[in-house]
Write a structure and sequence with these properties.
By secondary structure, this protein is mainly alpha-helical. It has a single domain, classed as Rhopdopsin 7-helix transmembrane proteins (Up-down Bundle), CATH 1.20.1070. It contains eleven helices and three strands. Strands 2-1-3 form a three-stranded mixed sheet. Helix 3 (about 95-125) runs antiparallel to helix 9. It is a multi-pass membrane protein. This is Olfactory receptor. It is found in: Cell membrane. It holds the Pfam family 7tm_4.
Length: about 325
């Protein structure tokens, strides 16, 4: 704990409660999740780059989304795994906390921007199929991805910089397994107006990308019901959006839960569970959503496996 009117130069991550045996079990589980996340998303990036059947805007965006999933889990999970092996609380310097928080928020903002762009891409594909290749050409896709990455990283510079100008005089113990912004704001003894402004910016990012997603899917559903009456045609149109829609539901619902205020006694455990969903479970599941529900990706994977088997035989 810190004395009043002094500011922290390092923080202690409380991590997960429980015995050493429980920590070892959690380490094994999360390490497995991390490896599968790395391998699954890396495979998606590779097949999107090399397979000609996947040379379309949807898979181009998917490759960047997979890269973001690798980044977001790598920013959080290695630190968390190291903390599970250490006895007691984990120490993290102020500079390391700044870097981790900035990268986590920047990558998350980029991912939400990209999910919104992917929703618009699906809208154009379903509602304007004849103009799809003209609208979503290579230059447009490159521009959209570049803007998403630049916006995500530039948008978070000022909030993170100003946040670490605050005075942390209440404590330097962060009740989470990483430098969580919500927990850090609770440790500050500065004016709560800035805290409310930070949360307002987070809501702006969340709903700024959610609105075009909702509008796009409203038009998609309306178009399918009106212009594609046959069950097979409607099913095929829905299948092209199913993987993206599933990731949208999981991603947005996890983040929206952070703004639901539980009882104060449950808030820390609640935030820890939601943080696990966002940084560990969701990146682990997304490769399965995009492979098991997509025939082209499955075909590309099987062809890749066959080629690898032939190479080993030769």
């Amino acid at each position: 704990m810190l004395m009043n009117y002094s500011s922290a130069t390092e923080f202690y991550l409380l991590g997960f409660p429980g015995s050493e045996e429980l920590h070892h079990i959690l380490f094994a589980i999360f390490f497995f999740f991390y490896l599968v996340t790395l391998m699954g998303n890396t495979v998606i990036i590779m097949i999107v780059c090399v397979d000609r059947r996947l040379q379309s805007p949807m898979y181009f965006f998917l490759g960047h989304l997979s890269a973001l999933e690798i980044l977001v889990t790598t920013i959080i999970v290695p630190v968390m795994l190291w903390g599970l092996l250490l006895p007691g609380m984990q120490t993290i310097s102020l500079s390391a906390c700044v870097v981790q928080l900035f990268l986590y928020l920047a990558v998350g903002t980029t991912e939400f921007a990209l999910l919104g762009a992917m929703a618009v891409d699906r809208y154009v594909a379903v509602c304007n199929p004849l103009r799809y290749n003209i609208i979503m050409n290579r230059h447009t896709c490159n521009f959209v991805v570049l803007v998403s990455w630049v916006f995500g990283f530039l948008f978070q510079i000022w909030p993170v910089y100003v946040m670490f100008q605050l005075t942390y005089c209440k404590s330097n113990v962060v009740n989470n397994f990483f430098c969580d912004r919500g927990q850090l704001l609770k440790l500050s003894c500065n004016n709560t107006l800035f805290t409310e402004f930070i949360l307002l910016m987070a809501v702006f990012v969340l709903f700024g990308s959610l609105i075009p997603t909702i509008v796009s899917y409203a038009y998609i559903i309306s178009t399918i019901l009106k212009k594609i009456p046959s069950s097979s045609g409607g099913r095929k149109s829905f299948s092209t959006c199913a993987s993206h829609f599933t990731c949208v539901v999981i991603g947005y619902s996890s983040c929206l839960f952070l703004y639901v205020k539980p009882k104060q006694t449950q808030a820390a455990d609640y935030n820890r569970v939601v943080s696990l969903m966002v940084s560990v479970v969701t990146p682990f599941l997304k490769p399965f959503f995009f492979t098991l529900r997509n025939d082209k990706v499955i075909e590309a994977l099987w062809d890749g496996v066959k080629r690898c088997c032939q190479l080993f035989r030769n």
